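Example 3.
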Amino acid sequence: MNLLFIAWRNFRYRALSSFLTTLSLMLGVGLVVIVMSIYGIISEAFVRNAAVGYNLVVGPRGSALQLTLNSVYYLSQPIENLPYTEYMEFFPADERARMVSEYGGDPTLGERDGVYAGFVGEGYAIPLALGDYFGEFRVVGTTPEFFEKLRHGPDLDQRFDFQEGRALETFTPENQYFECVLGSRVAAQMGLAVGDTMNPTHGDPEGKGHGQGFAVVGVLAPTGTPNDRAVFVNLEGFYLLEGHAKPLEEDAVIVLPDRDPDDTRPPLLMIPEREVTSILVRNGNVMHAPGMQNRINESGRAQAAAPIGEINKLMSMIVGPLLSALLVITLITCVVAAFGVLVAIYNSMNDRRRDIAVMRALGARRGSVTWVILFESLIIAIIGGAAGWLLAHVAIYSAGTFIEQQTGVQVGLFSVSEFEWLLLPFVIVLSLLAGIVPAMAAYRTDVGSNLSA
Amino acid sequence: MLTIANLIKKFQQPGGGELTVLDVPQFEIANAEQVALIGESGGGKTTLLHLIAGMLSATSGSIRVDNIELTRLSEQGRDRFRASAIGYVFQTFNLLPAFSAIENVKLGMTFGSGRVDPARAMDLLDRVGLADRAHYRPKQLSVGQQQRVAIARALAGRPKLLLADEPTANVDPASADSVLDLIIDSCRNESIALLMVTHSMEVAGRFSRIERLEDINRIPALKQV
């Protein structure tokens, strides 16, 4: 019969007190594990969402973080807009000439390669135009390339799948320029499906309606990215909405587009009338990214931000400290629970002084009865810690589907966050520390006076 | 087996100063001898037992048990010695409530050599007539049965000296006889010296040697408050 067994018997004998003490520790540990897991999930979700295949976001000069938030996460307000000619700088001369020819504008734009075209190479540059809403959701004007070129998933190898319909097209006879694709959450929350019409509002969720609807041609399958809560409209249709054309400057050089006289399509905005909010860029050779980023930032007209870098800054400057504060609070909960262990065992010392004296009379040394009390703390720590850990993981696992829908992060039953392995030793040390006070009381128990009753 | 010489025990008084409780010039018990010690309440009988068991340290004098001088041992040494050589039966049994009858008996072995002999524990329970209640908790046993378990526990470590502090005081008269028989017979069978403190002349009458504390302690009981 060893000291651990004796401690276990004592633990079981005071079943209610032991249960309640262990329960408080279990809840404390569970809370810490949940906070740690949320920390891990949020970090992973932020980083994962920042990586959708492109490596730079280009937008107007200002806050790089704000640019990232509004272009990658569809949060915050756009800073300003860039002239369309800035977007054209990512293309070679022939493509620029095609744009001038199709939309109309200064023909000299098509006579040279774009400043950044060499950096992009086989990569891509996809324009985004923001500013409209559909309910609470952001409307994103873009091109069909958005769905063709971008990838998502942990390995950035998954194309956008459609749970219904198809990707938008620049022009179709039935919908003309007014096609849209809904993110999965938008479709679910707003109750729209393929064939319905989406009517955006201008400027903010309560803004004035444009009076022009977009035909829903596709609904994205859930991606676990911010794209689930966005509405993607054809950029050309977006430009044609009331109030979206930039007023022409007096000195604008414009050559009208080449149009077939029989073409019944509505005329598109000319290049000087066009603006983009941001441009998602992937370099064909990522080694060119830093050079291009420097070039853009030195241009004085625009800025280029690396989304992952901005998000890491956000995590380390704001989200990280907030979560750390939350973690500290929950760790304090653990300390309070450990203090409960101290109080529970110490309170029971009055009842067990006689038992300790009897053990001493049977030959137990002071050290032995001290260890019995410490082992009792240890038992509470191990059971409370393990049960709390398990409970938290079952809770997180139970919410796994919801977490995956919201963040795209998959959580397994035993997905362990970074510092979780340290938690049980921490709780054990804490409980042993809490056990020291009653253990010292046991150490000092006088045999004679406690047996003479 | 037990030799006490010039034993003095003083306690510190709360208001300062010392109170002498025991002053025993000479007291001996031979191997396997059985002695009843009678005396008034507050005379220091229990204190004497605690000193012999090494649960208290003497102020001065000598206590030799089985040729070991207890007064020269550290507290840890006395704990070790008590676990291996002394059995103790309390007036109030003092079974540990969290443990079953057999576990209480095993506790009597745990702190000595550290080697627990389950067969001997069960044999001892059998000898006190409680083999069928080995897994009962103390509160599930009658008062007499609890004292029997306490006796089995006191014998578990194969002591050389058994100290019994009024072991029949809290049991009914019918059980008292069997408890007394059990202690006396067990000590005789295992050649264990026995020192039993009692108020009862009837109990003391079972012993061939009866000592009055007043005869061996120079401090009168009335002076002890």
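Chain B has a mean pLDDT of 89. The beta strands of chain B are 2-12, 18-29, 34-38, 60-65, 68-69, 86-89, 161-165, 193-198, 209-212.
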